[in-house]
Amino acid sequence: QLVESGGGLVQAGGSLRLSCAASGLTFDTYAIGWYRQASGKDREGVSCMSSSDNNTYYIDSVEGRFTMSSDSAKNIVYLQMNNLKPEDTAVYYCGAGVRGCFAYVEVWGQGTLVTVSS
Exposure winner among 66, 94, 97, 103, fewest CB in 10 A? Predict the structure, then answer.
């Protein structure tokens, strides 16, 4: 099970930190990713921590602004989002899968809404 929190309304240029608490799975087995879905658009992968090579990956549009981290002791992953832009507005989900980053996701969270005002 994955449970996200931390979404909200923020002005452009502001910051938010999302959290994803995992239960029943561990980060050494699953790749954990953050995904987002804006209204009327497909869900896209934003960042991902790979269990196979211990690397973290980001899509170009968030590189340098978003940072993904984890606390293995608490089984929580975070997404620190800085310099937010209106185009970052979306429902953010965390997802986990054993097939690697941005591959098939076996477990989804319920999502948390991030709204960035201009």
Answer: 103
